[in-house]
């Protein structure tokens, strides 16, 4: 069983790396880019009896810092 | 007076912090991250700078889950003193002992230079050797020192006079120019600048010495 966790900076938290990517895209002539937010994807290989609740607990305890980040869990 | 300095894989300011405490008169023991208890009778725990666990996942995130950090959290919850510098500050926010988080510097660059800090409060064992409003020169050396907290937390920090130091000129984008904050009971300080790197004439400045001296003075009489 596999799960995929997406971790993103929350709205309202400045993402300087995303901003730098936006500037770089602009410099390359991609003028239609209005904003870039950069996040993380974490793939987990899990035992067959693992549940979404288990992964949510992992996110709360370690994978995301909920002060600055939001997360979503996808069971694959 | 006993101090313990925690050593993680990737810590690189542990010895400097130990010397800072020693010069002020503390007996210092180094504590390995896999230890699950602090030495008996420790008055203050130092969480040093560096790159614990290679900054993997987030700075300080994995260190915050280590066995010794559980002991540091218990120590703080019992009213024990702790000083987290740089990566140590990041670790203390990740454990939840201190509020907020440290983000990538707004300018995206690693910054290593001495900056002017304003002493924002002298009401703590860490800062009572200074006068509020003093400007002191303390080195910074970080890539992720951009302090962030939501507006509610920032209001609480301000109302409770828990901002210990602010940057005279904000180098990294930190909200409200915050360089260091205190816990609610004022016994835990986390700060990005390195007072232990300004604690010997050979460092080119000794503005950090007053912190270690004040700590020693207060804890000796406590």
UniProtKB/TrEMBL annotation, chain A:
Catalyzed reactions: N(2)-formyl-N(1)-(5-phospho-beta-D-ribosyl)glycinamide + L-glutamine + ATP + H2O = 2-formamido-N(1)-(5-O-phospho-beta-D-ribosyl)acetamidine + L-glutamate + ADP + phosphate + H(+)
Keywords: ATP-binding, Cytoplasm, Ligase, Nucleotide-binding, Purine biosynthesis
One of the GO biological process terms: 'de novo' IMP biosynthetic process
Top EC category: ligase
Top-level taxon of the source organism: Bacteria
Major localization class: cytoplasm
GO molecular function: ATP binding; phosphoribosylformylglycinamidine synthase activity
Biological pathway: Purine metabolism; IMP biosynthesis via de novo pathway; 5-amino-1-(5-phospho-D-ribosyl)imidazole from N(2)-formyl-N(1)-(5-phospho-D-ribosyl)glycinamide: step 1/2
Enzyme Commission number, as recorded: 6.3.5.3
Family: Belongs to the PurS family.
Function: Part of the phosphoribosylformylglycinamidine synthase complex involved in the purines biosynthetic pathway. Catalyzes the ATP-dependent conversion of formylglycinamide ribonucleotide (FGAR) and glutamine to yield formylglycinamidine ribonucleotide (FGAM) and glutamate. The FGAM synthase complex is composed of three subunits. PurQ produces an ammonia molecule by converting glutamine to glutamate. PurL transfers the ammonia molecule to FGAR to form FGAM in an ATP-dependent manner.
Subunit and partners: Part of the FGAM synthase complex composed of 1 PurL, 1 PurQ and 2 PurS subunits.
Name used for this protein in its record: Phosphoribosylformylglycinamidine synthase subunit PurS
Biological source species: Epibacterium ulvae
From TrEMBL, chain B:
PROSITE patterns named in the record: GATASE_TYPE_1 (PS51273)
GO biological process terms held by the UniProt record: 'de novo' IMP biosynthetic process
UniProt pathway annotation: Purine metabolism; IMP biosynthesis via de novo pathway; 5-amino-1-(5-phospho-D-ribosyl)imidazole from N(2)-formyl-N(1)-(5-phospho-D-ribosyl)glycinamide: step 1/2
The keyword Hydrolase is annotated on this UniProt entry: yes
Active site (record annotation): 86 (nucleophile), 194, 196
Alphabetized NCBIfam families for the sequence: FGAM_synth_I, PRK03619.1
Purpose: Part of the phosphoribosylformylglycinamidine synthase complex involved in the purines biosynthetic pathway. Catalyzes the ATP-dependent conversion of formylglycinamide ribonucleotide (FGAR) and glutamine to yield formylglycinamidine ribonucleotide (FGAM) and glutamate. The FGAM synthase complex is composed of three subunits. PurQ produces an ammonia molecule by converting glutamine to glutamate. PurL transfers the ammonia molecule to FGAR to form FGAM in an ATP-dependent manner.
Official protein name in the record: Phosphoribosylformylglycinamidine synthase subunit PurQ
Protein source organism: Epibacterium ulvae
Organismal lineage: Bacteria, Pseudomonadati, Pseudomonadota, Alphaproteobacteria, Rhodobacterales
Gene designation: purQ
């Amino acid at each position: 069983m596999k799960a995929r966790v997406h971790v993103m900076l929350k709205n309202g938290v400045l993402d300087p790396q995303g901003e730098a990517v936006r500037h770089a895209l602009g410099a390359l002539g991609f003028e239609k880019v209005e904003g870039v937010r950069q996040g993380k994807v974490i793939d987990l290989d899990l035992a067959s009896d693992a549940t979404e609740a288990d992964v949510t607990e992992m996110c709360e305890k370690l994978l995301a810092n909920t002060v600055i980040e939001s997360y979503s869990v996808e069971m694959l | 007076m006993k101090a313990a300095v925690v050593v993680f894989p990737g810590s690189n300011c542990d010895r400097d912090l130990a010397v800072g405490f020693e010069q002020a008169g503390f007996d210092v023991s180094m504590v390995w991250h896999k230890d699950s208890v602090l030495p008996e009778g420790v008055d203050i725990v130092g969480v040093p700078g560096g790159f614990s666990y290679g900054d993997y996942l987030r700075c300080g995130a994995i260190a915050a889950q280590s066995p010794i950090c559980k002991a540091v959290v218990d120590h703080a919850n019992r009213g024990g003193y702790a000083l987290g510098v740089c990566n140590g500050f990041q670790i203390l926010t990740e454990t939840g002992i201190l509020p907020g988080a440290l983000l990538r510097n707004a300018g995206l660059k690693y910054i290593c230079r001495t900056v002017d800090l304003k002493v924002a409060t002298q009401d703590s064992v860490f800062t009572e050797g200074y006068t509020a409003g003093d400007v002191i020169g303390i080195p910074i050396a970080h890539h992720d020192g951009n302090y962030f907290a939501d507006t509610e937390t920032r209001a609480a920090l301000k109302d409770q006079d828990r901002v210990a130091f602010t940057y005279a000129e904000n180098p990294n984008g930190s909200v409200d120019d915050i360089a260091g904050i205190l816990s609610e009971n004022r016994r835990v300080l986390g700060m990005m600048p390195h007072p232990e790197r300004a604690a010997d004439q050979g460092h080119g400045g000794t503005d950090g010495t007053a912190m270690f001296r004040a700590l020693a003075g207060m804890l000796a009489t406590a």
